[in-house]
Amino acid sequence: MYYLRTVFLLTLVYLALRPNFEILNILAGIIIAAVVVLLLRPQPQPLRWRQLPTIILALIRYTVVLAYDLVVSGIQVARIVLKPGRTLRPGIIIIPSKNQSEVAQALNAHAITLTPGEIVVEMTDDGTMYTHCLNATESQKLVDDAQEMRVSLLEKFLA
Fold first, then answer.
1. 104 in Cβ contact with 149 (< 8 Å)
2. Which residue of 26, 49, 90, 127 has the smallest Cβ count within 10 Å?
3. Where are the alpha helices (DSSP H) in 41-85?
4. Can you give the pTM of this predicted structure?
5. Number of CB atoms found within 10 A of residue 57's CB
6. Where are the beta strands (DSSP E) in the chain?
7. How far apart are CA 63 and CA 44, in angstroms?
8. Alpha-carbon distance 155 to 152, whole Å?
9. Which residues, in sequence order, are CB contacts of 7 under 8 Å at separation 6+?
10. Which region holds residue 121: left if phi is over 0, alpha if psi is between -120 and 50, else beta?
11. pLDDT tens-place string over residues 41-72
């Protein structure tokens, strides 16, 4: 029953991303969802009702912080493009993950890569991320605070 519910939810996500409600598209969504469930074999997790408000608030805060970072970084990169006279020091910085789960490490790397001007180019087994930045010296100063916030929020809604 759990697998059927998961296939149903994944099919809804597929249809939300591809809003084409022809029968062949719906069948494709069901088949893709079934293959994903068969390959990953997700295990049911009990819902922790007492922690649900904390999880929801952490997820909302993480989304808001990520959106803010995207807008601010987008403006900074636009300034660099529109005023090319600025001196940049591009380079690769090392960002320790500090996350325990692989899902949190992947989401952390995804958040960094989404940010304009930064991209994770390599990730080690322990989660250390080698990140290319347009301005490595400036990014290295800001990375610790941003990483601490992302790690704490990810742990709250993924724990």
1. no
2. 49
3. 52-82
4. 0.67
5. 13
6. 91-95, 118-123, 129-133
7. 25
8. 5
9. 30, 33, 34, 37
10. alpha
11. 777 667 677 878 888 888 899 889 889 988 99
